[in-house]
Amino acid sequence: MKAIKAEILSIGNELLAGITINTNAAYIAKQLHSIGIEVQRITVIPDQTEEILQALAGAQQRAQVVICTGGLGPTPDDITKQALCRFFDVPLEFEPTVFEDVQRFLNHRRISLNQANREQAVIPKCDLVLHNHRGTAPGLYFKRHNTHFFFLPGVPGEVRHLMQKDVLALLAEFYRLKPITTRLLRTTGIPESRLIDKIGDLLEQYRQFRLAFLPRFRGVDLRFTLPQDAEQERKTFEEFVASVKNRLQKYIFTEEEKELEEALGEILKGKGLTLSVAESFTGGLLGDLITNVPGSSAYFLGGAVTYSNASKMQLLGVKQQTLQTFGAVSQETVLEMARGVQNLFKSDCAIATTGIAGPGGATAQKPVGLCYIAARFKDKERVKKFQFGADRIMNKQRGAIAGLELLRRLILNIE
Amino acid sequence: MKAIKAEILSIGNELLAGITINTNAAYIAKQLHSIGIEVQRITVIPDQTEEILQALAGAQQRAQVVICTGGLGPTPDDITKQALCRFFDVPLEFEPTVFEDVQRFLNHRRISLNQANREQAVIPKCDLVLHNHRGTAPGLYFKRHNTHFFFLPGVPGEVRHLMQKDVLALLAEFYRLKPITTRLLRTTGIPESRLIDKIGDLLEQYRQFRLAFLPRFRGVDLRFTLPQDAEQERKTFEEFVASVKNRLQKYIFTEEEKELEEALGEILKGKGLTLSVAESFTGGLLGDLITNVPGSSAYFLGGAVTYSNASKMQLLGVKQQTLQTFGAVSQETVLEMARGVQNLFKSDCAIATTGIAGPGGATAQKPVGLCYIAARFKDKERVKKFQFGADRIMNKQRGAIAGLELLRRLILNIE
Q1: Mean pLDDT calculated for residue range B45-62
Q2: pLDDT tens-digit readout, A320-358
Q3: Where is the MoaB/Mog domain (chains A, B) (predicted)?
Q4: Is the same domain home to A249 and A266?
Q5: Are residues A234 and A383 in the same domain?
């Protein structure tokens, strides 16, 4: 079967001015990929009629599926509707079922209807209305020649809603799709070039398969793809995945679409363990990541963000002498923080961070990016020193990830 | 002066598969905008030679500046270099100054050189090498006809580094640029459609100026633009800005490119006040946001993440009776949390959050998204009830922002 080609068209001056990051395009691409449709191009264009018309025409020539976001809101700078009327040669019409959606949506939030809201029910006459339960602008569907066009509002929650409710189901129906096979190995704690060194011979040996290296600040993902038309090679493909996995074992924290905090959460939950954190370097980020996981209250008891020396002593029982002798940024202090918070919350496990996130606070002996991290699992403990970079936000992120990983390896008794 | 048109070309299968979000494009667009160069189009294409050649040719026709990211790394799936050789009709060459950069970079990190690293010094013969101090792949510059081409690696930190060090300065020099005038009003706590209601008449009255509404989950930004060629209208433009500002006063937390946590931080620092936080609903996110601000240790003393009832009582002194009578998610509890943490850290100000972030934990009386937030400024306090939505991560974000804003308004005695 020949691959179905899709394009994403993102309309919005705010995207071109760099004020908004195009998370919608990534989300849509991922969803399409999951049902075997490959996105060949993503184009971001301004709220300008001519640009929209030109981009739609180009996409129609190249792709069988075009998904377009943005430009359907209530503000005066949205001109997409008019452009659609011209492109598809249809009139604007008041659509009563959309007006009902808008009324229901606003009633539920006890917001009264205004003129801008009413105008959202006036839409280009399309082949199918995608009713929006998360906002006031509907999605629109058109079929022209061999291309399916979907127009969605620009708000991320509404894009997700309409993709899940309508777009994916319609496409699966149109094309009778089966998913392509992919495998994911998600690593942390090893840079991309070292990974390549470790598995270079395997890449050579199994060169018929595509393996993508996807560096994220949290680590490097390895994604293997077995195309829909290569079913007969499945056994060799699985061999390839298994060989890479075997080679990189200790760096792999999951083979699923999940983050380290989720993987660690499952380990804790599976073993009935509880966790607390003591944060200086990470300032709350560790707690934030851990509590991003639904159901984390089952194992996460809480944390202490101790940004001052006084609070390190008072809340965590770090000794004044330790602070004076070794400083707040030291192996000794971070170990006392971990013990202190474990004791304070009576938790089975603990993570502690201290360091110099920057840009200020450095000394001759202690440069920006220096960080100590400790983990405790019952009465076992590990401590590790890191030298991160100059960027404060990145340093906090890397510290938090390193803390989660240190505890994961301690619990699983890896290296 | 006619606007200089730019295009951004992002190369990478990981962007088209939706695995990586295109933050580079947003960053580059914003930087170009700041020196008066308008991005007309952003295109994301796969790591495929033909697609790259076609996209470069198209961009060259339409734009005077083309900035291209991705495809210059050490992994086998990067084929950009070969494509550049074909497009610009130049050979691959070993470039000794780049090899020195790579060696210096790796030495500094005490990483030994491998074959992949060596290959990074083999580059298409370009008009200018942009030396990279943050990574091993250099940037490349070509001038062809009237178009300036810049090729940057795909790692966000390296893109920022090369944009700041080379690209912006070169463009400013080529085009002798002066910045265009923009004004920003950053609001929070009011939805986009209400904003339009409040200033609809002004939008009509000053319709010659462009005002963009930029909804972010943290609030709505209003961005006014006075084009380079409209200098004679500056007085009327300033009137427009002042009228809008006057109308929306209490929702505006800054007129600069800064976040609420930064604006609040400046207020605290200016008044010599200290802050602590007690987090249940937000799980550490408040502390994280506050400590994202460089120098926040001057006013932020720390926080308690109290995810369990026991920790609310033990650390913050919330009364058992309060928890039994009103529940952990209640006005009474959040006020005791705020008082408790203020007392624990001896801080001038405090913020506390409690609620049901979801998806679990709801009861008949307390649905997912219910949240109570309290702020204290010395002995004054405010408490506010919110009903957020179904998304856990969004709920935490909205709760954290609402907490910062509640304290900001309390300190400034707004409404």
Answers
A1: 93
A2: 999 999 999 999 999 999 999 999 999 999 999 999 998
A3: 7-174
A4: no
A5: no
pLDDT, chain B, mean: 91
> Hey, what are A46's tokens?
């301004």
Using an 8 Å CB-CB cutoff, list chain B residues near A111: 191
**Domain CATH code at residue A226:** 3.30.70.2860
B205 and B127 within one domain = no
Residue B287's identity, in one-letter code, is: G
User: In this predicted model, what pLDDT tens digit does every residue of B199-221 receive, in sequence order?
Assistant: 999 999 998 887 888 777 788 88
Question: Would the CB atoms of B20 and A284 count as touching at under 8 Å?
Answer: no
Do residue A157 and residue B391 have CB atoms under 8 angstroms apart?
yes
What is the reported pLDDT for B5? 92
User: Interface pTM (ipTM) of the complex?
Assistant: 0.73
Q: What is the 3-state secondary structure (H, E, C) of A376-399?
A: EECCEEEEEEEECCCCHHHHHHHH
Name the packing angle between helices A309-316 and B331-345 (round to 10°).
120
Q: What is the per-residue pLDDT for B178?
A: 65
Q: Is B313 on the interface with A (CB under 8 A)?
A: no
- The whole-angstrom separation of Cα A261 and Cα A278 is 16
> What amino acid is encoded at B101 in this protein?
D
- Domain match, A270 and A365 both: yes
Looking at the complex, does the CB of residue B292 fall below 8 Å from at least one CB of chain A?
A: yes
Same domain, residue pair B27 and B167: yes
- Of B205, B239, B254, at which residue does a domain stop? B254
Which residue of chain A has the CA closest to B297? A307
Q: pLDDT tens across B7-20, in order?
A: 999 998 889 988 88
Average pLDDT, stretch A236-261? 94
Indicate if A199 and A276 belong to the same structural domain: no
| pLDDT single digits (tens) B145-163 | 889 999 999 888 899 999 9
Structural domain count of chain A: 3
* Of A71, A80, A44, A76, residue with least CA distance to B211: A76
Is residue A286 within 8 Å of residue A375, measured between CB atoms? Answer: no
pLDDT attached to residue B9: 97
Q: Do residues A161 and A206 both lie within one domain?
A: no
Structure tokens, A286: 């560790």
**Chain A hits for B215, Cβ within 8 Å:** 155
| List of long-range contacts for B264-271, beta carbons under 8 Å, 24+ apart | B264/B290, B264/B404, B264/B407, B264/B408, B265/B290, B265/B293, B265/B295, B265/B296, B265/B299, B265/B300, B267/B408, B267/B411, B267/B412, B268/B299, B268/B349, B268/B411, B269/B295, B269/B298, B269/B299, B271/B411
Question: Do A47 and A118 fall within a single domain?
Answer: yes
Ramachandran region, residue A291 (left: φ > 0; alpha: ψ -120 to 50; beta: rest): alpha
Contact between chains at A15 and B42 (C-beta distance less than 8 A): yes
Query: Which CATH number belongs to the domain containing residue A69 in this structure?
Result: 3.40.980.10
- pLDDT at residue A29 greater than cutoff 90: yes
A304 contacts B393? CB cut-off 8 A: no
- Residue B192 clears pLDDT 90, i.e. is over it: no
Domain boundary among B124, B155, B175: B175
- Predicted confidence at residue B78, as pLDDT, reads 62
What's the CATH number where A350 sits?
Answer: 3.90.950.20
Residues spanned by the domain of B347: 260-412
In chain A, which among 143-202 make CB contacts under 8 A with chain B? Answer: 155, 157, 191-193, 196-197
What the block records as the tokens of B98 is 């780049």
